């Protein structure tokens, strides 16, 4: 079976991958096509924008957090019923955690996806030729089939760029003109903090622009290739657990396949720490990351939910809390202004946004001799406390160096800054490993 499938790559971050991807997803959707978006790497923010633009939840493809076979299965399963698969790369095309390992190029080679480059053409013209040549020939395991240029000043500017493509043997598919109306404003951990900015309208504006300046029909044509078959296993037995997942404006950083894995464990229900005052009766609670720091007064003021969560944890209920979810379980969270707001109080620690300092990277957590992987990305920190909180496991970065990120355990609560990926092996394996580790 053949299908249009493309990986949108770039030479560097900031070239316009996300802008073009959102516009392409919305344009194809507006034309009545069913589009399945994918994102290379551990990003849980761009995937939210993809879902908005395409009307279909996006899926992460990550060869550090998951096996190659799992990534193949994800791509085949989620792409099986769509008309077009669009995968947005991460950083530069060949940028991985160890040379090419974990890069967009590795994903393109693994899945056989044709690559279209988005290049920043600001202050350059024919000099893009050697850049294109290098990207085409550097790694024979991928096919770079086309290029789209961003920040193009005029038709005559694009003519130089098109000439460079012709001489290199890469098809010029169009351009995105300089336009302040299709520029994403300053962002907070990747999301706009300008409340007047609407990504939905933004996707429509970009779609309107590229419909005029990019040959989308040709892009789909040259990116049509064999699509892997997916054999549906109808005999998968669902578990009997009932799992509650926090999902609202403050907590929404989650991987689609993680939720899919929870659904295989049993019934998944969603609740809001912002708006609900009671917890559903469940066997497990998942508190994902998000932006609790933007809703400190509201979270702190919801005494009913704080009491319910505290009682559940004290009674031995199982909880996995990640990043913002972990902060919510602390005694308090202080905003960038230093004002601290009381939170759930299960962990005798204080979280703070002062001073804001980025900490990020892949993580491997070894628990009871077994490893599970994930990703860390935050600007906050947890201050040392006077009362000891048990920690489990050993945490390493992608190159095997020790990392001081704690994995807290309190009764049956596991909490950490690490966003774990359990889509391949299930959340119970993670919890069993963590809870056994400290026994």
Report on this structure:
It is a single chain. The protein has 439 residues and is an alpha/beta fold. Helices cover 31% and strands 29% of the residues. It is built from 13 helices and 26 strands. The chain has helices at 17-30, 46-54, 68-79, 104-111, 128-137, 155-168, 199-213, 216-222, 256-265, 296-301, 303-314, 324-329, 427-437, and strands at 2-10, 35-40, 59-61, 84-88, 115-120, 144-152, 171-177, 187-188, 191-192, 224-226, 241-246, 251-253, 266-271, 284-287, 289-290, 318-322, 330-334, 340-342, 347-352, 359-367, 370-378, 381-383, 394-396, 407-410, 413-416, 419-420. Helix 6 (155-168) links the parallel strand 6 (144-152) and strand 7. Helix 1 packs across helix 7.
Features:
six-stranded mixed sheet; alpha/beta; 439 residues; globular; eight-stranded mixed sheet; 26 strands
User: How large a portion of the residues is in β-strands, by DSSP E?
Assistant: 25-35%
Question: Main β-sheet, in a few words?
Answer: 8 strands, mixed
Question: Given the structure, what is the number of helices?
Answer: 13
Rg value: 23 Å
Low-confidence stretches: 188-196
Helix content: 25-40%
Number of strands: 26
